Protein 1
Amino acid sequence: RAERSLNFIEQIVDEDIAAGKNGGRVHTRFPPEPNGYLHIGHAKSICLNFGLADEYGGQTNLRFDDTNPVTEDTEYVDSIKNDVRWLGFEWENEFYASNYFEQIYQFAESLIQKGLAYVDDSTAEEIAAQKGTPTEPGRPSQYRDRSVDENLDLFRRMRAGDYPDGAKVLRAKVDMASPNMQLRDPIIYRIKHAHHHRTGDAWCIYPMYDFAHGQSDAIEHITHSLCTLEFEVHRPLYEWFIQKLDLFPSRQIEFARLNLTYTVMSKRKLKQLVEEKHVSGWDDPRMPTIAGIRRRGYTSASIREFCDRIGIAKRDNLIDVGLLEFCIREELNRTAPRLMAVLDEKPLKLVITNYELGREEIMQIENNPEDPSAGARDVPFSREVYIERDDFMENPPKKFFRLFPGGMVRLKGAYIIKCDEVVKDNAGEIIELRCSYIPESRSGSDTSGINVKGTIHWVSVPHAVEAEVRLYDRLFSVENPAADDPEGRPRDFKELINPNSLETVRAFVEPALVKATRSGSLTNVQFMRKGYFILDQDSTDALPVFNRTVTLKDGWAK
Ligand code: ATP
Ligand code: MG
Ligand code: MG
């Protein structure tokens, strides 16, 4: 903590503690609505809420903000719990706003009794019209002056199910002339005859966000209620309820939501991508969901590191997804073993003519030069190896340090070879290269005295394992698909989907790779010169599948 300056939320918490508020207690909550999977924006909120409590020896509740029966589901509840744990956090209490329905209902009756809430029969359109515009005062509803008794009776009948959806609402009686539109008699209860995933059919009226969130904070004695900037204008209402209902004074603090380039971050839009099958599911590795990012090969440590680096801001901004990629790259550079894979459906076969037929050698290749403790592995070498088609050019330009006719190159961890002959089929396509190796050039005991500029990766043909490799790119082709077009017109974000966000290729990989990843002893790997990859859940015994997490920043020896 001493290493960096405090962010503005820590400063507020410090002031509160210094002022003796809440006996120095810090209690936060993470309040997802279970209507979708968590995304990287939520990760920021999770790291912030849990991180703050950790820092001050406090606690964090996981609270499901499940006040909308129509959009919520237990599938989402389970995925959210799983994702929070995976990110490395454990909550103090698991709570549900729906557990407070009776208490929140009583708060509403108490407001009515104080003359601070009324039942309104106006339609949604009429209520919107009454609210007017920010520059002029609103108009009171004709139902605003109903008596306490009439309001109580109507509200109880709303609860009893006497009215259809939309027939009536309960509104807080705040101030129809307030310059803050949120205070112009906001709706706090609505009728919804819908089955709730936890309370079943017990209720047919449900509290609105503004009459559930702060009330839940108060019930749980949350000291600091952190939310995103769009709720800043709701804060006066949050505080009005605390005052009028004499609730525990939780303090709402707003911070900037995380937006990332080349993706969208609203659950509604993500859900559309899933439902309209633009992606394979919530955990499609191109999705900004925690489940997608995890499947893509990101570690929880890299996500926490990312959230740490972006910090806490008071203004909305758009963070370059390159920073997220940087965080995982930096980690995997240190931790991921480097193996060889030839990503080519029709790789180039190289026949080493002076290497005896049937001979095999085991090469010891170090797993990670950044990490000596990672040791070495056995890599079989034989007379025939596959290389990338790109690593050979028949007519190379100057400074091409890979293979060309008459040229020499080192096969990584093995021998220096020379290209003697190019074999083509009738159509003129190169089908193999006939080469010779320098026996004295074996890696580790090279006495050949030959210096070659290029080193390329390879896989022994008889030992190669075929795999499917999924090369992911950005899901959208523009930086901010949620923004309007340059002329200020709204755009359909789905028209901005990158048509080339997934390329599936066949590959030939080292046998050790498949063995180790399948046994679970290896998760993230580097394919030398190609990028970082992870075994995907779609793998079968016949065909392992690898997802590209991120490309390498720089290839070596290119
Ligand atoms: P979405 O717009 O994606 O549906 P939401 O805010 O409606 O998000 P909730 O489930 O209500 O989703 O969010 C739970 C918590 O996560 C809230 O406290 C919310 O402020 C926070 N959160 C959501 N999105 C972001 C984001 N992009 N950056 C930071 N915090 C976020
Ligand atoms: Mg929300
Ligand atoms: Mg939302």
Note: The longest strand covers residues 416-424.
Protein 2
Amino acid sequence: DASDIEKGTYPHYMLKEIDEQPLVMRKIIQKYQNDRGDLTIDQEIVDAMNDADRIYIIAAGTSYHAGLVGKQFIEKMAKVPVEVHISSEFGYNMPLLSEKPLFIFISQSGETADSRGVLVNVKEMGHKALTITNVQGSTLSREADYTLLLYAGPEIAVASTKAYTAQIAVLSILAEVTAKSRGIDLDFNLVQELGIVANAMEVLCDAKEEFEEISRKFLSTTRNAFFIGRGIDFYVGLEGALKLKEISYIQAEGFAGGELKHGTIALIENGTPVIALATQESVNLSIRGNVKEVVARGANPCIISMKGLETEEDSFIIPEVNGLLTPLISVIPLQLISYYAALHRECDVDKPRNLAKSVTVE
Ligand code: AGP
């Protein structure tokens, strides 16, 4: 049928979409570049970013996880304070808003009802909104003041992969362009850095056999799994845990390494898989300290580190990229490990039970 043709030689859309990530990166760079090769976005969006005294990112699921990374970009590069909220919670737990808020909605589909509920609300309050979406003309795009597109191509698998990395890339561009407009000098060239990311993504997509092996080793029989990280790695761990639960039905939890002692370490038993991300130089020693703590309680550690920070005990070393952009590549091992875990358990990879691609009811 038609879907088989679209899948080409791939057994699942998810695998195809994971593999498309280097291409999507290059497409995004190209779409957001001007004739001089500089990154650019609509001036009215830059103005809205500069008029705001605080940015509120609203999203659900994987898009929320991309928003957590986006907050780091916008605060570190453009120096504008950002809050990130789960859309379904925002209605009840609305924070005290700043005087000049700008709302950013992140949504692959542009149809998520919980996010739309917030958008309708804040528009009624007279606030400005920007939607970052993969679907031109989607509800969230039409109802917001501005739109930035992801250019990721249709994402069919319920588990979001290429939309997540596209969202993070577009957020990095938004942060960079805003920073430049504010006269902030960055010590790197984002076009170049994203190009390095695209190449690194290719290396990871070519290492599927290794990830299948890692998945077999750590996840084949387990009932649960933990993802730990510090700083930006923590956010990627949250996304890794979500991927794993939604398609393999393994109970998974992502948390900040420093939180172990505050509760979760009680769950570690003999053989419990703990997937640790170590891509951040500033916290490398602390996360490795956490690994030692869980190993002492019998955990089976799977360390994914970045080149330059690696040790002999690591299961996989990702290529080196700019320290802020590591989520774009450290997530790929987690996507692939989840994919193979689901495959080995004979789960319906593209259409996991109980889930819909876009959640259009509140
Ligand atoms: C991701 O793998 C999920 N299936 C889900 O969390 C998704 O990211 C969420 O429903 C938000 O969707 P959206 O990006 O289309 O708004």
Note: Residues 60-63, 107-109, 112, 115, 158-160, 246, 358-359 surround 2-deoxy-2-amino glucitol-6-phosphate (CB under 6 Å).
Protein 3
Amino acid sequence: TDARTPLIAGNWKMNLDHQEAIHTVQKLAWALKDAKHDFSAVEVTVLAPFTDLRSVQTLVDADKLELTYGAQDVSQHVSGAYTGEISPVFLSKLGVTYVAIGHSERRQYHGEDDALVNAKSKAALAHGLIPIICVGEALEIRKAGEQVSYTLAQVDGALEGLSAEDAAKVVIAYEPVWAIGTGEVATPQDAQEVAGAIRARLAELYSAEVADAVRVLYGGSVKSSSIAELMKEQDVDGALVGGASLDPEEFAKIARFQ
Ligand code: PEP
């Protein structure tokens, strides 16, 4: 973990309108300030609904917050006849740093597959956004003991055709589907098993340098009570936090691993 700055990312999902977003970011900024949060030691980001991004940008700029922000999805296209889609160019103009790609809820409810995750990741990178590529197995796959091979196939699909330079920039979030929103956090050992396998795959696909550079997050029912043990694992470089990121005090605690 040493060379990699840990990342704590809050996925708000479809919660918080633009006014609630302002309040939440203000409260989060205060909580982090109270805790004397060192952003060079642990990066903190919030992945907000599209309609919140302008408000979050205004607040972050006005108060010179070190907090970064991101989106929860992006189009694979740059512009044109794609009604309802959001271009990576639009996001980059709003000062967006990160974009979640292939979250399990998008795979499940919107039919997103590895090829689309790959195309969206390339589009994001081409416009200066950092993809947080989400992977992870459902319960039946874990019961069959196939979590590593299943998740690595998703990683392979997401990274297909990416240069080493681009691959070194991405963040990969290992989020077992059975742990998302269920209150059932993976054990640190389970998280490490797959996070370690993802890093080994990056070394195989690219190089040791790329494998060392990429941050691998764990996601799935992370709370302040579970983060410390997860962060002790060698290949867990942070967390993607859903439900608990809606509470600024709790999320700030997670950002200090306690
Ligand atoms: C998520 O949305 O990526 C997530 C991990 O949610 P939760 O923390 O609520 O399980």
Note: The pocket of phosphoenolpyruvate is lined by residues 11, 13, 175, 180-181, 219-222, 240-244 (CB under 6 Å).
